[in-house]
Specification:
The structure is a homodimer of 421-residue chains. Chain A has helices at 13-16, 25-35, 51-61, 79-87, 95-105, 156-174, 192-202, 227-241, 253-264, 278-283, 302-309, 313-319, 324-338, 387-406, 411-416, and strands at 5-11, 38-45, 64-68, 91-93, 118-120, 124-126, 135-142, 145-152, 182-187, 208-214, 217-223, 246-248, 268-272, 293-298, 342-348, 363-370, 376-381. By secondary structure, chain A is an alpha/beta fold. In chain A, the strands form four sheets. A six-stranded mixed β-sheet of chain A has the order 2-1-3-8-7-6, sandwiched between helices. In chain A, strands 14-13-15-16-17 form a five-stranded mixed β-sheet. In chain A, strands 10-11-9-12 form a four-stranded antiparallel β-sheet. Strand 14 (293-298) of chain A pairs antiparallel with strand 14 (293-298) of chain B, so a sheet runs across the interface. Chains A, B: Belongs to the CinA family.
């Protein structure tokens, strides 16, 4: 059987009530289209009894049905039993899924979570490293046709990696892309629409791409061609966006810095004003972070900058808190008080209020001090899409620049080449 | 005929190919839900011949079908002729629409734009002040049922005003808009599956509910009944989960604390170990936070606790960093160094490593100190679903307990009554 026509089937009452917005459609539709599938319908239904009827319509007309949602532990999460009914098989426990979940949550598995380890008999479980509900894929016979049915959990942080790592390669194989190959990159600080536009400029020899927005980075998948072609496209892209904003692999911004510190056996501390603890939080997201992280000062008020870091009152009066002089005193104060190898500091205008002509919202100063290198400060003007976006971007910039500082780079040069932050 | 069940039907090949993201679903779904309609399916199809077939399925099962897209001037924009065929009427020119468009574009109307002035006979045109395609609404007879069919253009800048100004009032009238009511609550620290289970226990008189997971809280919507019944259900729920974990309205955990501080004109500082800056970040998410937030110390390493907060070395040696004695010294040290009205501290085992039989992963101590009240410390044992979940929950607990401390509550009593955190 040739598989071409695909239906996307998304389940969630919170979606049909308009309480939350769907995040999957575009990612799934664009990836399927790039592989050569024709997406003939996308259907969104509430978590209720009508699922079966609408799903039957998809099965009647399409070769592949991809479902997301309806795999949670609550009573209205019906996907697995409806797919089993369509395939005319019972639900059975997938032992590997059960064992993996038991290893994580122990006796709490009994009750609602246990049913999340059940899949339709004859289907293959798809492991879910980021949640409790396994996905599954298998065949629903329909007359002389064999419909491929794939079910994934609804939350994007669970579905995205499951789709890209486990489902997409399978779909590529199914449609005959023997040469399906892809490389993953991580990009920082570049807006998704801009990244797409730049990919159109940088592509060649029919290379395709897909992007996935993930918290503090955007993953970029280059698809097709050979290894060398994908590397060449990545190089072209990097020359368009500027240094350090595109790296190979699945890398969170904090890892740029912590991998370096671990390799060198060194430690860091941070003094934060506008990011107010968020950099410290990112530096301790991984277990074992006491190896590289000492601690930090969140000096939101000017009095805190003076009391906790020894910033001079005159500096604040003459230059203001968002200034080269202030971030240098913050970083040096932090270094002296902490006895770490490296210290970073941040002070900026997060907005939405507090900007001026001279220092508009998005103006952020970064300071760095060290036992190993002379102190350094650099200013970045971030495009503001709101307070949260300025604070998150400033945190990412601080992490990238700190790793460049440790490597001995000239921060002014780096920042000057950034095109689209 | 009673109109309750609605289908949203969106047409556009650029959507099913994933080239652009849909912008209508959530707006339409939430508005319809608020009016009291039940959105039973949302379907997205390409601009091709299959539209009729899928539309027929919607007509077979729903009372109202709202279409967007497929009204443009290009040859693959088929909506109007398919609706006319379903209603078994010819397409006719709507003279008012023609005249309005002629007044704007003159002789250019002849050709592709002329067909945009055609609507199914017997339907009412819906003027489009922002584009060339008129919308329309009318009845599709289906046996003894009369399906309401509404078609709007796809571009958001045309559809949005048409929907809000002309379609929404019509839909409100159609459903009577009288017995529709709901209340929103915010819940903290209760797993979604457990909340659903508790709602089943607490409901009465046919009250319905819905939940929405949002970062650090879960919104709970109680639907139906009268105001008093919804308040009663909320009270029952609160008695099941424990105090302070369910509040009226759309409230983020940090607001519990910051609203209180603003009302009192007071300030806070925080000393964080395991949450490592995340509480400071949450307390500054809102603009204007310098009114209530001074700053904080992120004392991840033991040396940082001593150097930055004056915690005694003996305290750390005898009791460890995760102890009543340590969080009390942290909170008091923070208060003394900051001159704020209130100070909070947190120290716990975030995991996944570092737990012991005595202090398993999820053990977190919270300390509070103030000019206005004697110092207090309390231990909470959080159910661990991983490092990130422990740190996020600990941050929410700190914010809730700090607001209780300021209000003069007995924190030990509060914590003892929490059932499912």
């Amino acid at each position: 059987m040739t598989y071409i026509s695909a239906a996307l089937f998304i389940i969630g009452t919170e979606l049909t009530r308009g309480v939350i917005a769907d995040k999957h459609w575009q990612v799934l539709a664009s990836q399927l289209t790039q592989l050569g599938y024709r997406v003939d319908r996308m259907v969104l239904v509430p978590d209720d009894g009508t699922i079966g009827e609408v799903l039957q319509e998809c099965i009647d007309t399409c070769d592949i049905v991809i479902l997301t949602g309806g795999l949670g532990p609550t009573s209205d999460d019906l996907t697995r039993s409806i797919v089993a009914r369509m395939a005319n098989v019972p639900l059975v426990r997938d032992q590997a899924t059960f064992d993996a979940l038991y290893a994580r949550i122990g006796e709490r598995i009994w009750g609602a979570n246990e049913q999340q380890t059940m899949i339709p008999q004859g289907f293959a479980a798809i492991p879910n490293p980021y949640g409790t509900a396994a996905g599954f894929r298998g065949i629903i016979p329909e007359g002389d046709r064999e419909i491929v049915c794939i079910a994934m959990p609804g939350p994007p942080r669970e579905m995205d990696p499951m789709f890209f790592d486990q489902v997409l390669p399978y779909l590529a194989q199914l449609i005959g892309h023997d040469d399906f190959a892809r490389s993953e990159y991580s990009t920082f600080l570049i807006p998704e629409a801009k990244l797409d536009e730049l990919c159109r400029q940088a592509t060649f020899n029919g290379l395709q791409w897909g992007t996935r927005f993930q918290d503090l980075k955007i993953s970029l998948y280059l698809v097709g061609g050979d290894d060398q072609e994908r590397v060449e496209m990545a190089k072209r892209l990097e020359s368009l966006v500027g240094p350090s904003l595109l790296v190979e692999g699945d890398v969170m911004p904090a890892q740029l810095l912590t991998d370096l510190l671990v390799a060198r056996g060194e430690t860091i501390s941070c003094a934060e004003s506008c990011t107010s603890g968020f950099i410290a939080k990112l530096l301790t997201d991984q277990s074992g972070s006491s190896a590289w992280f000492y601690g930090g000062a969140v000096t939101y008020a000017n009095e805190a900058k003076m009391a906790m870091l020894g910033v001079n009152e005159e500096t604040l009066q003459i230059h203001g808190a968002v200034s080269e002089a202030c971030v240098l005193e913050m970083a040096e104060g932090m270094l002296n008080r902490s006895n770490t190898d490296w210290a970073l500091s941040v002070s900026g205008i997060a907005g939405p209020d507090g900007g001026s002509n001279e220092k508009p919202v998005g103006t952020v100063w970064f300071g760095f001090a060290s036992k190993h290198r002379s102190s350094m400060a650099v200013k970045v003007q971030l495009t503001s899409y709101g307070r949260d976006s300025v604070r998150r971007k400033a945190s990412v910039v601080a992490l990238i620049l700190a790793s460049q500082y440790i490597k001995g780079a000239c921060l002014l040069d780096t920042v000057k080449k950034w095109q689209y932050i």
